[in-house]
UniProtKB/TrEMBL annotation:
Catalyzed reactions: 4,4-dimethyl-5alpha-cholesta-8,24-dien-3beta-ol + NADP(+) = 4,4-dimethyl-5alpha-cholesta-8,14,24-trien-3beta-ol + NADPH + H(+); 5alpha-cholest-8,14-dien-3beta-ol + NADPH + H(+) = 5alpha-cholest-8-en-3beta-ol + NADP(+); 4,4-dimethyl-8,14-cholestadien-3beta-ol + NADPH + H(+) = 4,4-dimethyl-5alpha-cholest-8-en-3beta-ol + NADP(+)
Entry keyword set: Cholesterol biosynthesis, Cholesterol metabolism, Cytoplasm, DNA-binding, Endoplasmic reticulum, Lipid biosynthesis, Lipid metabolism, Membrane, Nucleus, Oxidoreductase, Phosphoprotein, Receptor, Steroid biosynthesis, Steroid metabolism, Sterol biosynthesis, Sterol metabolism, Transmembrane, Transmembrane helix
Any GO BP annotation: cholesterol biosynthetic process
Organism encoding this protein: Grallaria varia
Recorded superkingdom: Eukaryota
This protein's name: Delta(14)-sterol reductase LBR
Parts of the chain that traverse the membrane: 211-230, 250-272, 293-312, 324-343, 454-474, 480-499, 520-541, 561-580
PANTHER family linked: DELTA(14)-STEROL REDUCTASE, DELTA(14)-STEROL REDUCTASE LBR
Record-level Gene Ontology MF annotations: Delta14-sterol reductase activity; DNA binding
Pathway involvement of the protein, from the record: Steroid biosynthesis; cholesterol biosynthesis
């Protein structure tokens, strides 16, 4: 593994985030997890910088020597000594013109001196000027605050930055050759690729470390089977332990074959050359993987296939009759897939390992995922399982429950409760597939490896636990009135609106912060060059998408009534899951953004629930 390049206490030149200006800084520390240097400016300001944003002082010596050899004071003094005293009239004109040049040169020298260090109030002044600009208020017009003026434009398009640099150049505009060399050097600094760096060992273990992850490997399958058995009981109380079925009844080769057929059918749809191909976020080695966005097409193809089966009188409620066997088949397959993933990860290069699953402990890495993006050729296993077999399978399971309800209770049409559950969850799945590209920026793709946690979650937990409300309604039908159904629909629409608008706002800002449609949004600049939104939904709470998720989960459970808490298990689980994810996000963002994240938390104090949490 390559070692760090700069030692603690070393004096280097650090690029101010978002600009092309470098300042003298001292290396304070280095984070092996995020690969960021904490540097300290002479005024006490501390920022976290990437290694690509730091240069040694020796790389700037040549430019400094050039500028000192042609300093304005030496040029003016040499010209004054060579002036002839015998030509008073012309000399006076020259002296007046040279005095003006000396004043201009002194102004440039003062500006260059003032830029040697960023002022103490620089970061706060930058945020204040940004806020004023978005509110339509006049910005600061101090003449000597050239550093603020230059870096203030860092979030504007490249052409605007170029214009500002030319307007506030620190070098003589007469020396075109020197300016071109300097500009090309800055351009190289701005476009330099990050130095390839292998991920270090995972230090902060989640989920209770080795013991916690071992217990989860046993607890998660047991929870799924317990919930499914409980749903078939006349009294589905959580404390009413259902009788265990015979082990031989839990396994059936036909259902396992049916699950394999479903999995490879979705794999076939994934490999079809339809849909656009996009690039993911940069990896630790600077590379970007390509992904084919065709999840919505796979959903359409699946709907057509299901329609053909129903047309030829295929009994889709067979899935309901053998629901437990299908769950066991999916769990067995996810376990086998997890073993394969861990074995192949042992031969993966260091830079391809997951930053959160490289602890060196077998059970922990097996659970969280050792390899970040396991691929067979161009077939990305993690990305495929994230949305295809489980999420689309969830819709198919709900449809099977709807048909089973009609058959068992001799209904000519499904109940209103079942229709609401199917409609709400269908909307959620279609939205995820329609906005498939957004999943490339989630922690599941960018941070978490592909191990038992995601394999079991994608293939077992999503289709068999997320469909709990529909499965419950088959055995425990609930009658609701149209006004109640309308009220529940409004609740779901509110949750969906918050969820979708918040995610769209975030994704649009990530793609193009300079989009005129986002001109009304305010943000805090960070050392990584990205911004933290402090207005809109992300100025309301830190995770508004999680708030929308929880509201929708509640709307999915309300059609089941209030006779038992079992249908609300999903809501309780979802709250616990999102609170855990929120804690992970907080820790990750604090390491990534440093002081900017602390300022963001001061501006937006509530995490998920406004005025509560």
């Amino acid at each position: 593994m390559p070692s760090r390049k700069y030692a603690d206490g070393e004096m280097v030149m650090g690029r101010w985030p978002g600009s092309v200006l470098y300042y003298e800084v001292q290396v304070a520390s280095y984070d092996d997890v995020t690969h960021l240097y904490t540097v300290k400016y002479k005024d006490g300001t501390e920022l976290a910088l990437k290694e690509s944003d730091i240069r040694s002082q020796s790389s700037f010596k040549h430019r400094k020597s050039q500028s000192s050899s042609s300093s304005p004071s030496r040029r003016s003094s040499s010209r004054s000594r060579s002036r002839s005293p015998g030509r008073p009239g012309k000399g006076r004109r020259r002296s007046s013109s040279h005095s003006r040049e000396n004043k201009n040169d002194k102004k440039k020298a003062i500006q260059e001196t003032s830029l040697a260090l960023p002022p103490v109030s620089f970061l706060f002044k930058l945020s204040e000027n940004n806020t004023k600009r978005y509110n339509g208020e006049p910005e600061s017009t101090e003449k000597n605050d050239t550093s603020c003026i230059i870096v203030e434009h860092k979030l504007k398009p490249d052409l605007e930055v170029k214009r500002v640099l030319e307007q506030y150049s620190l070098r003589s505009r007469k020396d075109e050759k020197k300016k071109e060399e300097t500009y090309s050097e800055k351009k190289i600094f701005a476009t330099a690729k990050p130095i390839e760096k292998a991920p270090s060992k995972t230090k902060d273990l989640e989920f209770g470390g080795r013991i916690g992850t071992f217990m989860l490997i046993l607890f998660l399958p047991a929870t799924v089977f317990y919930l499914l058995l409980l749903c078939k009981q006349d009294d589905p109380s959580l404390m009413n332990v259902p009788p265990l079925p015979a082990l031989e009844s839990l396994w059936e080769a036909r259902t396992f074959g049916g699950f394999l057929l479903w999995f490879f059918l979705q794999a076939l749809f994934y490999m079809l050359p339809v849909g656009k191909v996009v690039e993911g976020l940069p990896l630790s080695n600077g590379k970007k993987l390509q992904y084919r966005i065709n999840g919505f097409y796979a959903f359409i193809f699946t709907a057509v296939a299901i329609g053909i089966l129903l047309y030829f009188q295929f009994e889709l409620h067979y899935l309901y009759d053998h629901f437990m066997q299908f769950a066991v088949s999916a769990a067995a397959f996810s376990l086998a897939l997890s073993i394969y993933l861990y074995v192949r990860s042992l031969k993966a290069p260091e830079e391809e390992l997951a930053p959160g699953g490289n602890s060196g402990y077998f059970i922990y890495d097996f659970f969280t995922g050792h390899e970040l993006n396991p691929r067979i050729g161009s077939f990305d296993l993690k990305y495929f399982c994230e949305l295809r077999p489980g999420l689309i399978g969830w819709v198919v399971v709900n449809l099977a429950m709807l048909l089973a309800e009609m058959k068992i209770h001799n209904l000519s049409m499904p109940s209103l409760s079942m229709i609401l559950v199917n409609a709400f969850q269908l909307l959620y799945v279609v939205d995820a597939l329609w906005n498939e590209e957004a999943v490339l920026t989630t922690m599941d793709i960018t941070h978490d490896g592909f191990g038992f946690m995601l394999a079991f979650g994608d293939l077992v937990w999503v289709p068999f636990v997320y469909s709990l409300q529909a499965f419950y309604l088959v055995h425990h039908p609930t009658v609701i009135s149209w006004p109640v159904a309308a009220a529940i629909t409004i609740v779901n629409c509110i949750g969906y609106y918050i969820f979708r608008s918040a995610n769209s706002q975030k994704n649009s800002f990530r793609r193009n912060p300079a989009d005129p449609k986002l001109a009304n949004l305010k943000f805090i600049p960070t050392a990584t060059g990205k911004g933290l939104l402090v207005t809109g939904w992300w100025g309301f709470v830190r995770h508004p998408n999680y708030l929308g998720d929880i509201i929708m989960a509640l709307a999915w459970s309300l059609p089941c009534g209030f006779n038992h808490i079992l249908p609300y298990f999903y809501v309780i689980y979802f709250i616990c899951l999102l609170v855990h994810r929120e804690a992970r996000d907080e820790h990750h963002c604090k390491q990534k953004y440093g002081l900017a994240w602390e300022r963001y938390c001061q501006r937006v104090p509530y995490r998920i629930f406004p005025y509560i949490y």
